[in-house]
Amino acid sequence: MFTKLRNKFLILNMSITSIVMIAAFAIIYFITYSNIHSEIKRKLSSGSQMQITIEGTDLPENTQKGGTISSVQNFSTDGPLSFSIEVDADGKILKVDSFIDMPDEAYSKAAATAWSNKKNNSAITLEGKQWQYAVTRMSKHVILSNGQQYTADENKYQILFLDVTESDKTLFQLLTTLLFVGLIMLFVIFLISLYFANRAIKPIAETWEKQKQFVADASHELKTPLSIINANYDALLANQEETIKSQIKWLGYIKIGTDRMATLINDLLSLARIEDVNFETRKMPFNMSNVIHDVMLSMEAARIEKRINLSHSVVPDVIVKGDSERVKQVVTILFDNAIKYTNDNGQIEISLRKSKRHVKYHITNSGKGIAKQDLPKVFDRFYRADPSRTHEIVGYGLGLSIAKTIADRLGGEIHVTSVENDCTTFTFTLGV
Ligand SMILES: Nc1ncnc2c1ncn2[C@@H]1O[C@H](COP(=O)(O)OP(=O)(O)OP(=O)(O)O)[C@@H](O)[C@H]1O
Ligand SMILES: [Mg+2]
């Protein structure tokens, strides 16, 4: 399932990146192509000739009467890269202007090809080179001796050829470079996308696995009290004639079962509520020292029953800004564990200290402690260390995960240290 999701991520990412890259490269190519071609067109159109004919007698001395005095302006600058052929209305060559050393047949072939396909700015291959040409009707500009001027079309055409081999080569090189760079970039993008897709999927997969495990564990835990209730209900049913008083044992077991289910469901609801993104914690100043004293008092009976000795050093009137109910829940969970997992006649030590930025609540209890390898797992849901012992002690392994979630929500921390067969210490730190 997650491989499919990752592949979808990957395909989506690759498609978007490829489209953006192809679009960028196409724009680069198109801009270069149109720049080169408009430059070629400009050269071809500015290279057309116009004949100037001057008629009359009182003309400046340096003018050539009735002659052609103007030639191609840009033509000469591109001399070695261009040539022009003058043809009559039937395509017959009248004149060739060229700086290039080419055989006459080449010019005839060029003129014939261009004349048969008069489409401007077409290209032909000649002498191993690419030529672009433009066919323009020639005109003459006549200046009369009385100063009047007019332009008249002639029955002649000029075909101007421009060598575009280099431009074509440049465009081809640009295309191959873009293709090459594009392929390499796609490959690199693929590797990067794969890395990030894997990274993005990992926490989702982990959360999904945890959630699945959670549902399985919760169902499993609910099965035990349910089967207790069922078995005792059957026992009651089998002795229908008996009085309630004589059956009180079975009823007591049913009560234990329902109590256990109620505790578990309450814990599950509590976890769900705290983990809800909309869960809000209050930020009100409260007396943390009093909260600790309240919890100690509420658990006094359970502690005395196990003959546990309690010593405490709680700095009075430590004021903390936060959610007092949630803080009390954490302190209760830690205290409840301390009583549960301390050996009879054991010892519990509590302290509350305040520094500039934090308050630290320590609770240490004697007992078997927690094995080093189990320490990081004690905050996992439904985790109970030392299974040989835990079946004697009631619990679902949810207390510490609730405490940790609350601490996270309050911006605090919970840490545990333990020395096996000696003691265990939990530290709850909160910002003031
Ligand atoms: N103070 C402690 N001393 C020794 N072991 C502890 C202590 N607190 C917790 N543990 C170990 O960590 C495990 C997880 O504790 P947690 O409070 O999450 O669950 P629980 O006490 O087993 O059940 P629940 O709190 O749901 O009633 C316990 O089963 C126990 O093995
Ligand atoms: Mg507990």
What is the structure about, briefly put?
The protein is an alpha+beta fold. It is built from 9 helices and 13 strands.
Blueprint of the fold:
Blueprint lengths: L1 H45 L3 E5 L27 E7 L4 E6 L5 H13 L5 E5 L2 E15 L5 E15 L1 H74 L9 H28 L8 E4 H11 L1 H6 L3 E6 L4 E4 L1 H18 L5 E8 L3 E9 L20 H4 L8 H11 L3 E7 L3 E9 L1
Parallel strand pairs: 1-5, 8-10
Antiparallel strand pairs: 2-3, 2-6, 4-5, 5-6, 7-9, 10-11, 11-13, 12-13
The structure holds adenosine-5'-triphosphate and magnesium ion.
Adenosine-5'-triphosphate (ATP) binds next to helix 7 and helix 9.
The assigned CATH architecture of the largest domain is: 2-Layer Sandwich
**CATH level 1 class label of the largest domain:** Alpha Beta
Spell out the helices and strands N to C.
HEEEHEEEHHEHHEEHEEHHEE
Main sheet specs = 6 strands, mixed
Q: Got a strand count?
A: 13
What fraction of residues sit in β-strands? 15-25%
Topology-level CATH name of the largest domain: Heat Shock Protein 90
Q: What is the oligomer described by this structure?
A: single chain
Give the overall pLDDT as a whole number.
86
Tell me which ligands are bound.
adenosine-5'-triphosphate, magnesium ion
Shape: rod-shaped
